[in-house]
């Protein structure tokens, strides 16, 4: 069929044979030489490769990739948080103690320490009807490690047997009770309770969270270690490496004592009594400036 095209008319290419194209225009078909046919940007865009369905598929795929990139880190973070909660629940309650104490518990458990050897937030009965609150206890093959967990920012100055230390944070200077002496009291109270195992080695480890610097700390006693949180595992490994294995006389009894101390902390009245006794000991409510 013969028909005439004007410049700018849009046609559909049906096939090609050499320099000739079979074309379709307004329901009519015919042939035209390639020198008279020009491909516009619109015709290129409408090639089979860019059909609307393919465009939609590309768009959907692009959106899925974007969602994957954006939400994968969030999902992984949620997954790890839920997994950590499950690990923590094997030893302690999620709202018990401080966040830094719970972080240390998690570090121990995630690095191979057995659930039955980790005890968090213990309230030991003392001879004066009070409680000695211990942040964390770990039973190891070489003895018992008693942890005192601190959350401080600044520069620390003090000596092992000095009752009070100095902490400088910016332009502010504070006086804090020696964590070494504080943990020695905890260890003494623990020994009083496990009196049938007086020879069991007990190590004191004070773990500092926050941006804390040991500027001038000396005369640290034997079996006592001070460390920042990122080196706590290193300290535990050192204790286990340089000390001989200890043969516990009655490990089950020690675990029972620690479990009872942990149960004491579940009782609200015990917590309130301990806080009241600390407040009375400090006597801040009896100071009038």
UniProtKB/TrEMBL annotation:
Q: Which InterPro entries match?
A: NERD, SH3-like_dom_sf, SH3_domain
| Record has Transmembrane helix as a keyword | yes
What parts of the sequence cross the membrane?
Answer: 58-79
Q: Which domain of life is it from?
A: Bacteria
Domain NERD: from-to ranges: 96-213
Residues forming the SH3 domain are: 1-42
The UniProt keyword set, sorted, is: Membrane, SH3 domain, Transmembrane, Transmembrane helix
Q: Which residues form a coiled coil?
A: none
- Name a Pfam family for this protein: NERD
Which named protein is this? NERD domain-containing protein
Say which species the protein is native to: Pedobacter helvus
């Amino acid at each position: 069929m013969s028909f005439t095209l004007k410049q700018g008319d849009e046609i559909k290419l049906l096939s090609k044979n050499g320099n000739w194209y079979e074309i379709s225009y307004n329901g009519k078909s015919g042939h035209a030489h390639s020198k008279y046919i020009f491909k516009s940007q619109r015709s290129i865009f409408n090639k089979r490769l860019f059909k609307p369905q393919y465009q939609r598929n590309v768009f959907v795929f692009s959106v899925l990739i974007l969602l994957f990139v954006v939400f994968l880190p969030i999902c992984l973070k949620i997954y790890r948080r839920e997994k950590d909660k499950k690990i923590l629940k094997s030893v302690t309650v999620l709202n018990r103690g401080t966040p830094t104490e719970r972080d240390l518990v998690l570090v121990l458990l995630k690095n191979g320490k057995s659930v039955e050897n980790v005890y968090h937030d213990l309230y030991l009965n003392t001879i004066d009807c009070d409680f000695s609150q211990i942040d964390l206890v770990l039973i190891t093959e070489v003895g018992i490690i008693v942890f005192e967990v601190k959350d401080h920012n600044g520069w620390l100055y003090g000596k092992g047997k000095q009752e009070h230390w100095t902490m400088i944070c910016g332009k502010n200077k504070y006086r804090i009770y020696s964590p070494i002496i504080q943990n020695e009291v905890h260890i003494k109270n623990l020994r009083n309770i496990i009196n049938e195992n007086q020879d069991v080695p007990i190590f004191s480890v004070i773990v500092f969270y926050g941006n804390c610097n040991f500027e001038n700390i000396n005369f640290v006693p034997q079996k006592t270690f001070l460390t920042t949180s990122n080196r706590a595992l290193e300290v535990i490994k050192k204790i286990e490496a340089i000390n001989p294995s200890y043969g516990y006389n009655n490990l089950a009894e020690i675990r029972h004592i620690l479990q009872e101390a942990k149960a004491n902390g579940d009782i609200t009245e015990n917590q309130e009594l301990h806080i009241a006794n600390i407040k009375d000991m400090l006597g801040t409510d009896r100071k009038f400036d």
